[in-house]
């Protein structure tokens, strides 16, 4: 949260100017470092969710494949495609 250096108002992350007094909000080195650490944490969390959902899909596939073995290949292939798609759209860059 960028704090206005002129009036001390706590502005929202995306604001470029202070909502309260209109002064320009310049990110300090500490702000930038905190932002980078936060984004890195979010990416790790998203990657973990993706991995967890892939494992869940895989378990369901294996359970289904117990009755219909041929579905396992198709199911796992679909999992890989879905997770790869989510990975690139969600995590991006
Ligand atoms: Zn201000």
Total strand count, please? 0
- Terminal Cα separation, in Å? 24 Å
Radius of gyration: 22 Å
Residue runs with pLDDT of under 50 for 5 or more positions: none
The helix/strand series, from N terminus to C terminus, equals: HH
Instruction: Determine the strand fraction and express it as a percent band.
Output: under 5%
Identify the overall geometry.
Answer: rod-shaped
In this entry the ligands are: zinc ion
Structural class: mainly alpha
Q: Major beta sheet, specifics?
A: none
Helix content: 55-70%
> Mean of the pLDDT scores?
83
Description:
This protein has 93 residues and is mainly alpha-helical. Helices cover 63% and strands 0% of the residues. The chain has a domain of 54 residues. The longest helix has 37 residues. The structure holds zinc ion. Zinc ion (ZN) binds next to loops.
